[in-house]
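Example 3.2
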Amino acid sequence: MTETTTVKFPTHYDVVGSLLRTPALKEALAQFSRGELTATALKVVQRAETQKVVAKEVALGLRSVTDGEFNRNWWHLDFWKHLTGISEHFKESISFAGGGNKLHTAQLVDRVAFNPDHPFFDDYQYTQSLVSAGVRVKQTIPSPTLLFGANWHDVYDDWDNYLSDLAQAYHETILHFYALGNRYLQLDDTNWAYLISELNATEDNPEAHANFESQAKDAVALVNAILKDLPDDLTTTTHICRGNFKSTYVFSGSYDVVAEYLGQLNYDGLFLEYDSQRAGGFGPLDAIWQNNAHKRLILGLVTSKTPELELASSLESRLNEAAQHVPLENLGLSTQCGFASSTVGNLLTQEEEWQKLRHVIAVADQVWS
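Structure, written as tokens:
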């Protein structure tokens, strides 16, 4: 695909974030957990494997790359436990489909605040050192909306004060990434999928339904407070995830019940899962896009949960169907999620993972060439 002017991010094809951990990295993590490898030695392996995976992403033709989340065990917990005020210990909550794992809820031990020594900053700088001009490093972090269920009342007397501290901590974190050179940051968010599920489940319970509507409004206010007054050349996106562990999921439901709220979020782009009927149809895209020529909706039509490749003709047909709601120029294509929200990863091989990403690029080249 040829871009004749300044590249707009997210591009028409993009990588969501996490990638399957390599055998060398998995072995190093296992040795570290058994006490056979020091943290310093583990970091050496993480750096080496990050270098390899970034080189592969670039060679594949991706204009934005990530470190594959090779420097963390979980997509969300490793970030939170290094924010000031959040414990390293988490409570288990909702189970994935088929069992085998649970979502985790953060536990507060003090007021939440920015940590200038967060290890993600060093990891970002290393990844940034691996790319040349024309390739942008996307930094992924978990959305603070997932912290709504934390034990905030043990630390705060007031909900609004808690949200204010969350917004400030995240805003300062993003600005620090920017100062280090980051120009593309994504907040990964399962909270909207949770709200979809709960809003549908409480249709006949007005009081409970109103509570979840209130949570949706608070989520919009929190995210927009974080994004307020960020530099103009910083691209911010979100990925709406329904759960991703060993090719399983947690939530189902169409975007229609949260579309008006998603449309109020001041992101430059939204990555939307659309790989199965659990996501519903494209009707809600109108309300999500809001006729915003600046915003792109990246449709996750290619699943990261199974190795089979979707028919290119089917993907093109679905993109054209979505273009009845949002101009094709404002759409993009990706996998529905990353490939490894934890070190365990989904049930496919690394080669199958790369075939999926090649397929995304090939179809996008055909559609937007």
